[in-house]
User: What shape does this take?
Amino acid sequence: MSLINQIMDYNKDFVETKQYQEFLTTKFPDKRMVVVTCMDTRLTELLPKAMNLHNGDAKIIKNAGAIVSHPFGSLMRSIIVAVYALEADEVFVIGHYDCGMTGLNSANVLEKVKSRGISDDVIATLGHAGIDLDQWLTGFNHVRDGIEKSVNIIRNHPLLPKNLPVHGLIIDPETGRLDLIDEGYAAIQNN
Assistant: This one.
């Protein structure tokens, strides 16, 4: 049986037996927070448990490395929507140790892209269109660098209020220990 068929069969039973009822909540985060974190599978259940988050408590946005790569990209748009339309009052940027974005080599990624059938012509066309794939597919040297950069972009965004606390943390993907890298309240007081 294919993966999609397994998922659809399970889902049918999930809905018919009303297992969804324990997850009912509103679109507004109960703890009025937005979390930007990594898509790493080790964090799927660990991070919410380590932060005492339950369904409905927070808006959680995931991407590779918890990196805000562009101040007007889709990740920043999601943060802005969470703050203004969904009533989030604080932002938490949470990376993790042993992240796959640490030392990510764009040349290796592009070789895998090519091995899956994407031609050199497509890659060249993207380059001619001004897309720097080497920069776009590069991670960071240390997770702390990525967190600090992302916090800085969010904290200084022209569409976000200066009194919005933006915190930077790193989680241990084995134990769930959170290390506070940048405490957002202190940054507000220093401005």
About this structure: The chain has two domains: 26-100+141-191, 105-138. The CA atoms of residues 48 and 54 lie 7 Å apart. The mean pLDDT is 95.
